[in-house]
Design brief:
By secondary structure, the protein is an alpha/beta fold. The protein is built from 19 helices and 16 strands. The protein has two domains: about 240 residues, Rossmann fold (3-Layer(aba) Sandwich), CATH 3.40.50.2000; about 230 residues, Glycogen Phosphorylase B (Rossmann fold). The strands form three sheets. It has a seven-stranded mixed beta sheet with strand order 1-3-2-4-5-6-7.
Length: about 500
C-alpha cells in the first residue's frame, strides 16, 4: 500500500508509481510547496498570525493522519486551480496533504456534466438520470473508491470534490476514512432539475461527516445543517494568473498570442511559474477573427473569460454586445476560453465552442471585426494562466454574464486586477460584487439591458477606475487564501 511522509519531495515520488491497469484508476498529483508567509505582505501580520495559530492546532490533532483531496481533473476549471494553491500552502504549513484525480469513461462524464447542469437548475443535454445512468455512475465511483483505498488509511481525512466523487463517500467512510464532501456548484431556488440531481446524489452522501458549500443558499433542505460549513473559495495573488505584471509584459503577451496582430514575430514573454521558476509565454492562441487583428493597446476591450459552457452564456454576451455596443462605442469584445479539445471532464465544451463560432459567422461584417473568439492552449497551465492574466489586465471592462454560477472566481480574479466588472446577480457572484465594487445584472437574459449598461460604463472612464479600485480592496479583505485556509483548519479541527 503506497504510503509516504508529508514532504513535497516524497509526495512527488508518489506520482512515479506505475499506473493502475484498471479503467477506473486514480492518479496522484504532485504539488510544489508554497510559502504561506508571503501573504504577510498583503494581508498583514494579524491575519497571518491567526492562520498560524489555527494551523498549529490542526497539525497537533492530525497526529500523523493524511488529508486527501479527490477531484475529477488536475487542470482546467476553478476546482483544480484552487487545489494547486491550497495543497501547496498546506504543505508549507506543515500538513501532510495530498491530491488524487480520478478517471472515468465518456458516459460517466456525460452523466456528471448532466448532474452539474441540473444542480444549477438547467436540464443540460436533456437526457435522463434513470436507472441505467444511476447504475453506471455508482459502478464507476465504487470501482474508483477501491483505487483510492490503495492510498487512504483508516483515520485519514478525505475531501471529495463535486458530483463526480460523491459516489465514493460511503465506501471510503466504511473503510475508516473521515469523509467530507465539497460541493462547488448549486442554485438558490429549487426546481425539477435540481431535485433530480439531488435525488441521485443523496443516496451516496448519508455517511459524510461534513459538507462544504460556497454559498448557504445551495444547501438542500434534507441535509443535516449541523454538518454544513460555508467556505467561499479564494484567489492566489501570487499565481501566474494573478501576479502583478507591468504594461510592457501585458502588451508583449497579447502580441505573442495573436490578439495584437500576428504573434509569430513577437518574442516569448517571461512570467513566474507556480514553483517560482521562470516560464515563457511562447504559444499562440487559436483566435476566430476577421483577418488581421485591429486591436491595440489603446482600443477599449470588453472581456469574458470562461469555459465554453452554455451556463456561462458566451453566445449571449456576444449578441448583447453586437446588438448594442458597436454603434455607440469604439470597443471590441474578446470571448476567452480554453482550447475546447483539451478539457477532459466536460463533453459539451467543443459543442458550445462550435455554436459560438456559428453565431460569430452570423454577425454583420462591420460587427464581426470587433468580436474575437479566443481559445487558449492548455498544454502548459502556468502559461495559460499568464495569458489570462494579461488579457484581464488589459481589459477595460470584464464581464461574467453567467445564467447560473457556483461561485465564479473569475470575477474575483478580475476585481483583484482593479477591473470594472459587470456580472450576473446569480450564485456566488452576488457575494463578490457588493455595492460600489461592480455592477450586477438583475436579469442575465436581458441582452438589451446588458448592452445598455455596458455602453454607459464604457462612456464613463472615471467610474471604471473607481469601481476597479474598490473591487481590489474588497477581494483583499474577503477572498485571499488565508481566509480560505483558516476556515478549512476549523473544519478539520472539528472532525478530530
Amino acid at each position: 500500500m503506497p504510503r509516504t511522509g508529508g514532504s513535497a519531495a516524497k509526495m512527488i515520488s508518489l506520482a512515479t508509481r506505475e499506473p493502475a491497469s484498471e479503467v477506473y484508476k486514480v492518479s496522484p498529483i504532485p504539488v510544489p510547496l508554497r510559502d504561506w508567509a508571503q501573504l504577510d505582505s498583503l494581508v498583514g501580520e494579524a491575519r497571518v498570525a491567526a492562520l498560524r495559530v489555527a494551523a498549529d492546532d490542526v497539525r497537533q490533532k492530525l497526529d500523523g493522519r493524511v488529508i486527501w483531496n479527490v477531484s475529477s481533473t488536475a487542470e482546467g476549471g476553478g476546482v483544480a486551480e484552487m487545489l494547486h494553491v491550497l495543497v501547496g500552502y498546506c504543505l508549507g504549513l506543515g500538513f501532510d496533504v495530498r491530491w488524487l484525480v480520478m478517471s472515468g469513461d465518456g458516459e460517466f462524464f456525460a452523466i456528471t456534466k448532466r448532474l452539474h447542469n441540473r444542480l444549477h437548475g438547467a436540464s443540460g443535454d436533456g437526457d435522463d438520470l434513470g436507472p441505467a445512468k444511476t447504475s453506471h455512475y455508482a459502478k464507476v465511483t465504487a470501482e474508483t473508491a477501491q483505487r483510492v483505498l490503495d492510498f487512504v488509511r483508516p483515520g485519514d481525512i478525505v475531501l471529495l470534490h463535486d458530483p463526480q466523487t460523491a459516489g465514493m463517500a460511503t465506501i471510503l467512510q466504511e473503510a475508516g476514512a473521515r469523509v467530507v464532501w465539497r460541493c462547488h456548484v448549486g442554485r438558490e431556488e429549487r426546481n425539477e432539475w435540481t431535485e433530480q440531481a439531488w435525488s441521485l446524489l443523496r443516496g451516496h452522501l448519508g455517511t459524510c461527516e461534513a459538507f462544504v458549500f460556497s454559498v448557504s443558499e445551495y444547501v438542500p433542505p434534507w441535509m443535516d445543517q449541523a454538518k454544513v460549513w460555508i467556505i467561499p473559495p479564494s484567489i492566489d495573488p501570487f499565481s501566474p494568473k494573478n501576479e502583478e505584471i507591468d504594461g510592457d509584459a501585458v502588451s508583449g503577451i497579447l502580441h505573442r498570442i495573436g490578439l495584437f496582430g500576428d504573434g509569430s514575430a513577437a518574442p516569448p514573454v517571461p512570467f513566474t511559474r507556480r514553483d517560482g521558476t521562470t516560464g515563457y509565454v511562447s504559444r499562440h492562441a487559436s483566435i476566430v477573427m476577421t483577418g488581421k487583428s485591429e486591436l491595440g493597446p489603446h482600443i477599449p476591450l470588453v472581456v469574458q473569460v470562461s469555459r465554453w459552457d452554455r451556463l456561462k452564456d458566451m453566445a449571449g454576451v456576444m449578441q448583447g454586445f453586437a446588438d448594442h455596443v458597436p454603434e455607440e462605442v469604439e470597443a471590441h469584445l474578446a470571448l476567452v476560453g480554453p482550447s475546447p479539445n483539451d478539457v477532459s471532464d466536460d463533453p459539451e465544451e467543443l459543442e458550445v465552442y462550435r455554436e459560438c463560432v456559428a453565431a460569430w459567422n452570423g454577425l454583420p461584417d462591420v460587427v464581426r471585426r470587433r468580436v474575437h473568439l479566443v481559445a487558449l492552449p492548455m498544454d502548459d497551465m502556468d502559461e495559460n494562466a499568464a495569458m489570462v492574466n494579461a488579457i484581464q489586465r488589459h481589459a477595460t471592462v470584464v464581464v461574467q454574464k453567467s445564467l447560473a454560477e457556483g461561485f465564479g472566481l473569475t470575477v474575483a480574479e478580475a476585481m483583484w486586477k482593479s477591473r470594472a466588472v459587470i456580472a450576473s446577480g446569480v450564485g456566488g457572484i452576488v457575494k463578490q460584487v457588493v455595492p460600489g465594487t461592480g455592477i450586477l445584472l438583475a436579469v442575465p437574459t436581458d441582452l438589451r439591458g446588458f448592452g445598455e449598461i455596458l455602453v454607459e460604463l464604457l462612456n464613463h472612464p472615471e467610474e471604471i477606475a473607481l469601481l476597479g479600485a474598490q473591487a481590489r480592496q474588497h477581494v483583499l479583505d474577503e477572498f485571499v487564501g488565508d481566509r480560505h485556509l483558516g476556515s478549512y483548519a476549523k473544519l478539520i479541527a472539528s472532525l478530530l
